[in-house]
Amino acid sequence: HLVKGLTSPAAIQEMERIADWFPAAITNCFCFELELSEASSSADFSFLCNRDSMGAEILAGLSSIKLRDELFTNPVWGHLRNFCRIWTGPDSTIRDSITHLWIELDSDQRQNVPVPCIYLGMPRNHRTDVTWLIPLLETLNYSVSNQLLEHLQRCLGSTVLANRRISLGLMFSRETD
Question: Are 167 and 121 spatial neighbours (Cβ–Cβ below 8 Å)?
Fold first, then answer.
């Protein structure tokens, strides 16, 4: 239910198409993102999954509620499923390192199957040494270069970010490094 004129009917229709890929039980927090321009024609859709939620179980493939098989024609979803299986496991080494996931789906994608951007939520006491992120990023099949590690080290070591909740965004649906 959006205020008329906030975004185009086509953008709302695309957001609904993307949302239809996911069961309502995947989250209790759906969100959308609008461009703040005069003629906004895009609206991105996202949802939150906490570590111990039904949504994490659905993404991990451990719930009786299943995602559509067609979604997994894009390998990013398979990598996310593997990550969620590790993340939600009782003996997980990353269990306390990632508190939640935001899954964002850009509405301007041209693919039928939506490709996610994945935001990894870190607790306030996140580590400043980034080496713990390497296996986590590799589980998601995210390319880990020395340059990336240096940038992450500078960011996580910043006093500005000390004792703050931060998220690391992996932009699989966008052409960026």
Answer: yes
